[in-house]
C-alpha cells in the first residue's frame, strides 16, 4: 500500500501559496497497476516525483512498505552536474551492486546516446535523460515492487519506443506500475485502476475505464 497522510504540496507566489495538492488522505493498493489522469498543470509529474522521493510534500507524508522506483521518464531525477555514467555508478553502489561496470555498459548500450553518456546530465535533452533513466531502471531487473513512469513513451524515435515497450512488457509480471500517459489506449493496456487528480486532491477508481470516463466528462467534453 502507498498511504498519503494529510499531504499538501504548494509553491510560494506573490499572491500567497499556490497549492498543487491540499490535505490529501488516501491509500493506494500496490497489487494493481494504476494510470494517473489529470489536465495539464494539475500535478501529475509532481505526484510521481513525490512518490519516488525526488520531491517532498510541504506538509504531511507519503509512506509505503513497498520498494518504489525513482521517477522514470521525462522528469526522471538524476544529478545534473554528474555524467550519465557517474549517475549510473552512484545509483548502483547505493543499491548494493558491486558489478557497476557491467551495469554501466548495459545502460550505455540501451540508452544509445553515444559520447553524451560521459557528459553532465544537465546538458541532456529530455529524451536523452529519459533514455538513461529507463535503462538504469531496467538494469536492476525490477528490484522494485512499484515502477513509477512519467510519459515514458513520449520520447525517443520509433525504434527506441518499440524497444522500451518490448522490454517493459517482458518484465511486466514482476512489478506493478503507476503511470502517467496521455494515451488512453496505452493506459488501458498497462493499467487496471485509475487515479484522477481533481480539485487538488486524488480520487481512486478500481477500474481504469471508470477513471477515463470521469476524466473525459470533466476535462474533455466540457471544452
Feature tags:
single chain; 223 residues; alpha/beta; Rossmann fold; 6-stranded mixed beta sheet; 3-stranded antiparallel beta sheet; 7 helices; 9 strands; 36% helix; globular
What order do the helices and strands come in, and which of them pair?
Layout: E1 2-13, E2 16-28, E3 34-37, H1 44-52, E4 59-64, E5 72-73, H2 84-94, H3 100-111, H4 126-139, E6 146-150, H5 158-171, E7 176-180, H6 184-190, E8 193-198, E9 201-205, H7 208-220
Parallel strand pairs: 3-7, 3-8, 5-6, 6-7
Antiparallel strand pairs: 1-2, 1-4, 8-9
Helix pairs in contact: 2-3, 3-4
Provide a quick synopsis of the model.
The chain is of the alpha/beta class and 223 residues long. The chain contains 7 helices and 9 strands, in the order βββαββαααβαβαββα. The termini are far apart.
State the fourth-level CATH superfamily of the domain at 1-69 and 146-155 and 176-223.
P-loop containing nucleotide triphosphate hydrolases
CATH topology of the domain at 1-69 and 146-155 and 176-223: Rossmann fold
* Rg from alpha-carbon coordinates: 18 Å
- Please state how the strands of the largest beta sheet are arranged side by side: 5-6-7-3-8-9
Ranges with pLDDT <50 over ≥5 residues? none
H and E string: EEEHEEHHHEHEHEEH
Total number of strands: 9
CATH architecture of the domain at 1-69 and 146-155 and 176-223: 3-Layer(aba) Sandwich
Biggest β-sheet: count, sense, barrel? 6 strands, mixed
Structure annotation, total helices: 7
- Beta fraction of the residues? 25-35%
Q: In the CATH hierarchy, what is the class of the domain at 1-69 and 146-155 and 176-223? A: Alpha Beta
Helix share bin: 25-40%
Amino acid at each position: 500500500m502507498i498511504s498519503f497522510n494529510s499531504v499538501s504540496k504548494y509553491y510560494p507566489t506573490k499572491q500567497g501559496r499556490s497549492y498543487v495538492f491540499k490535505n490529501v488522505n488516501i491509500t493506494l493498493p500496490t497489487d494493481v497497476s494504476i494510470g494517473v489522469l489529470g489536465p495539464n498543470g494539475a500535478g501529475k509529474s509532481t505526484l510521481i516525483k513525490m512518490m519516488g522521493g525526488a520531491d517532498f510534500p510541504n506538509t504531511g507524508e507519503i509512506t509505503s512498505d513497498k520498494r518504489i522506483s525513482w521517477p522514470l521518464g521525462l522528469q526522471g531525477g538524476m544529478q545534473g552536474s554528474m555524467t550519465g555514467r557517474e549517475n549510473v555508478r552512484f545509483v548502483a553502489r547505493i543499491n548494493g551492486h558491486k558489478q557497476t561496470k557491467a551495469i554501466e555498459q548495459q545502460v550505455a548500450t540501451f540508452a544509445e546516446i553515444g559520447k553524451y553518456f560521459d557528459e553532465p546530465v544537465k546538458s541532456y535533452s529530455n529524451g536523452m535523460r529519459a533514455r538513461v533513466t529507463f535503462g538504469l531502471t531496467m538494469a536492476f531487473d525490477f528490484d522494485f515492487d512499484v515502477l513509477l513512469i512519467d510519459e515514458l513513451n513520449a520520447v525517443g524515435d520509433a525504434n527506441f519506443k518499440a524497444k522500451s515497450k518490448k522490454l517493459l512488457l517482458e518484465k511486466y509480471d514482476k512489478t506493478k506500475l503507476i503511470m502517467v500517459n496521455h494515451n488512453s489506449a496505452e493506459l488501458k493496456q498497462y493499467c487496471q485502476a485509475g487515479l484522477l487528480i481533481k480539485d487538488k486532491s486524488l480520487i481512486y477508481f478500481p477500474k481504469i475505464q471508470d477513471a477515463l470516463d470521469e476524466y473525459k466528462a470533466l476535462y474533455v467534453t466540457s471544452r
